[in-house]
UniProtKB/TrEMBL annotation:
One of its GO terms (biological process) is fatty acid elongation. The keyword Transferase does not apply. Residues 6-186 form the Ketoreductase domain. GO terms for molecular function: 3-hydroxypropionate dehydrogenase (NADP+) activity. SUPFAM superfamilies: NAD(P)-binding Rossmann-fold domains. Gene3D superfamilies: NAD(P)-binding Rossmann-like Domain. Belongs to the short-chain dehydrogenases/reductases (SDR) family. This is NADP-dependent 3-hydroxy acid dehydrogenase YdfG. It comes from the Eukaryota. It comes from Triparma strigata. InterPro entries: KR_dom (IPR057326), NAD(P)-bd_dom_sf (IPR036291), Sc_DH/Rdtase_CS (IPR020904), SDR_fam (IPR002347). NADP-dependent dehydrogenase with broad substrate specificity acting on 3-hydroxy acids. Catalyzes the NADP-dependent oxidation of L-allo-threonine to L-2-amino-3-keto-butyrate, which is spontaneously decarboxylated into aminoacetone. Also acts on D-threonine, L-serine, D-serine, D-3-hydroxyisobutyrate, L-3-hydroxyisobutyrate, D-glycerate and L-glycerate. Able to catalyze the reduction of the malonic semialdehyde to 3-hydroxypropionic acid. One of its GO terms (cellular component) is endoplasmic reticulum. Keywords: Oxidoreductase.
Amino acid sequence: MSLQGKVAVVTGASSGIGASIARTLASSGCSVVIAARRLDPLESLASQFPTVTPCQCDVTDLSSFRNLISTCESTYGFPDILINCAGVMYFTLMKNCKVEEWIKTVDVNCKGVLHGFACVVEKFIERGSGHIINISSDASKRMFPSLAVYCASKTFIDVLAEGTRRELVGTGVKITNIQPGDVKGTELIMGNTDGEAAEKMGVEIGKPVGEGFEREQLLDVEDVAGAVMYALEAPKHVAVNEVLIEPRDQE
Ligand SMILES: NC(=O)C1=CN([C@@H]2O[C@H](COP(=O)(O)OP(=O)(O)OC[C@H]3O[C@@H](n4cnc5c(N)ncnc54)[C@H](OP(=O)(O)O)[C@@H]3O)[C@@H](O)[C@H]2O)C=CC1
Ligand SMILES: CC(=O)[C@H](N)C(=O)O
């Protein structure tokens, strides 16, 4: 299915995977509203494409998410596609009780996605079409030490999506979860604080994801954007419900 003329909203588009998805959609003929809390990187990305508009949004705040969808509606029309990509990941050992980081993980990764559903599902059903894509993680499929809360948050997304998908069978609405393994060069672990947990995972706090890994142990952001395109471009009668995409040499 061609994406020419479609309207998309991408959260978490100020860096990493979300920025790559936004670039790919814009290059494929979509009008895109890109969202995150940091406006500067959004504006810089938007300046490279005639049909990309930045919108500051905190996905943990429902009214902020509603404002994002209204901005899209008044600029390009109600979205055909919502990409829930905003997310945080903290390596934390449960014994170190980083409660604030646990709560933030739940707020962004779980509540943020729920807010996205709240803003589009009803209208998608009414229109008989619409596609929600969630950037989940392979951490929803297998547990990693030091990531209990993160794994739980991504499992929440998978279960939410599958439950909603079953409820919506026959409505024309599609929901896809993309479950990437380690992706190179994103800012996901920059703000981590539990040094003991990070050390256990063999990562250095303050460095982008993948420092010191072999090439075949990492995906590029474009690989994840490619998986998103695969799901979006599938024929109308095909639902790509999940895509587990990992680097060749990830254990
Ligand atoms: N890198 C990896 O190895 C993998 C990443 N993922 C998932 O991919 C997604 C993107 O992560 P990635 O690109 O790696 O990391 P980045 O840290 O580069 O991107 C995270 C994005 O989320 C945004 N964000 C964080 N909190 C909020 C918030 N409250 N409201 C709105 N936006 C927010 C950030 O923008 P800002 O700070 O400006 O708000 C940023 O744009 C996440 O959901 C992550 O879990 C999944 C599997 C593997
Ligand atoms: C658990 C992981 O490290 C996964 N690659 C992710 O970043 O979600």
